[in-house]
Amino acid sequence: MSITIGIDLGTTNSVISVKKINVTTLRNAEREELTPSCVTAIPNTDHQTYDIVIGRSSRDLLKQYPTQTIMSVKRLMGRDFEDSEVQNMIKNHRVGYEITTDPSEPGSIRIPLVH
Prior knowledge:
By secondary structure, the protein is mainly beta. It has two helices and nine strands; from the N terminus they run ββββββαβαββ. The chain has one domain: ATPase, nucleotide binding domain (Nucleotidyltransferase, domain 5), CATH 3.30.420. The strands form three sheets. Strands 1, 2, 3 and 4 form a four-stranded antiparallel beta sheet that branches. Strands 6-5-7 form a three-stranded antiparallel beta sheet. It has a two-stranded antiparallel sheet with strand order 8-9. The termini are far apart.
């Protein structure tokens, strides 16, 4: 008997399902089927190391750590740094985190999670 695993990495939420005979959606640590597509880097007291938080807990930290909470990153995937949508996101401050590029890799998109 084979097992099939499906992963949907969504812009807003992500979900994982497994099919043995029937399809079963896996639950995250909070016992929820949908996991917000969000990551936060929280600085420790030494400000040299970070704790990484994902999902709902990360989304709940957005106001406290706006520059260190990454969400909606899927909107950037496959785009060039000069793409009008990317430039609009930067210009209109549609996200709290920094979107940069690396001059040694023209068109690349970088999101520094920690500074």
